Amino acid sequence: RAFYGSFFHTPEYGSFEYLERALIEVGEDGAIERVIAHDDPNQAAALAKVREAGTLYELGEGRFGLPGFVDIHIHSPQWPQAALALDEPLYRWLDERTFPLESKFADVDFAKKVYSDLVDQLLARGSTTAVYLGSAHLEATVALAEICAERGQRTLVGKTVMDDPKANPDYYRDASPEQAVRDTETLIREVEAIGRKSRAGAWPVITPRFIPSCTDEVLRGLGNLAESTGAYVQTHCNEGQWEHDVVLERFGKTDPYALRDFGLLREHSIMAHCPYLTEEEGEMFAELGVAVAHCPTANSYFSSAVAPVQRFRSQGIHVGLGTDISGGYSPSMYENIRQAVLVSRLLETGVNAQLPPEERGGLGEGTRLSLVESFWLATAGGAEALGLPLATFEPGRAFDLQVIDVKRPDSDLTGFGVFDEPIDRLARILYLSTPDNVRQVFSQGVLVCDKDAR
Ligand code: GUN
Ligand code: FE
Hints:
The protein is an alpha/beta fold. It has 2 domains: about 1-65 and about 390-454, Roll (Urease, subunit C, domain 1); about 70-385, Metal-dependent hydrolases (TIM Barrel, Alpha-Beta Barrel). It has 14 helices and 19 strands. Strands 6, 7, 8, 9, 10, 11, 12, 13 and 14 form a 9-stranded parallel beta sheet that branches. Strands 1, 2, 3, 4, 5, 15, 18 and 19 form an 8-stranded mixed beta sheet that branches. The chain has a two-stranded antiparallel sheet with strand order 16-17. The protein is globular. The two termini are about 25 Å apart. The mean pLDDT is about 95. The chain binds guanine and fe (iii) ion. Fe (iii) ion binds next to strand 6.
């Protein structure tokens, strides 16, 4: 297949590229083979050929292509409580809301109902790749991987491990550390099998919930499993003061060192949140190839803090963006792109204008994220974090596309044609679009969502 239209993407951090009236040729496997620019003398012949073959898809007037988003941190069983109870502190939100909800995913039929809706809603917002934390149940989590494969969403997915009887309710936890490790081994096998037949791919992720919910035995067992299988690892790290203090008291060291010593920090391990990450810990992340999932919305609630993304980047740490449903209220990566920009501005200056500037606690110049940098986090940054060839329109990368119509009855992003440079168009799309502006979504070269056909 071939796709003709105008596309935005960010091959490099800090800048964007506008491919105007470009032709993108995609192979049978859904990977990009060639990008032919409008001023390339070969474009006309290439266009004629795919037109004749009937394999051309034209985005059309007033439509723009963006890469599919890569959401690198989202809790699938928390979808029914998105937007709820965010006034609670993390530990109470977990005990009173989240654990009772997640425990319902013992019922696989209920899980399938929720997960089918979640995957559809994410695709409808342009998220073609998602890194999920499932519930603590093996069966429901495998069902999620199957639903993603059916719907065409690329998935990395883990069964959440939480085995400590002192930290978790009896009605919702792993029966023992051995059982948790065995279930994780089974999950790895089953998701790898699904991945072999899924077009866009499915990968298992070793998923201790966070240190406070896990015993030493299980953390060690999962670290060994990570070593022996090379599977991805994900967890929450350095999210809030409460967690920070609990871990320090238990191990005499902070989350990153404790996780490292259990063998859980490896290349492409994904650490969610990290607002407390020190420079020294950051250097270790960079050396090991560990990635940070920046979750700006959730951090505003449960961390009451902002992660210094620009510092992470300048330290050479991989950083992607996560919605963190339901610590973050929105399933939309657009919303989180916006939030990442906004909170970075507060971190730059500090928030309390009642104080003299030098006492506000801002980190100063170089701290803010530009809109384009935030767009990179949601696309190429996520791909880099996962070590997968995704999220830019370059040969060899998976072709994941969202088609944006800038003129919808209730969401007109055309700006009356006054400011109409590529950056203006891109800014309107990123800041102002609604799910209705996203008309089609392709994953690995295949149409997975078509709102025009509804
Ligand atoms: N820490 C442990 N579990 C969770 C969770 O479900 N969400 C968030 N944001 N933090 C956590
Ligand atoms: Fe989370």
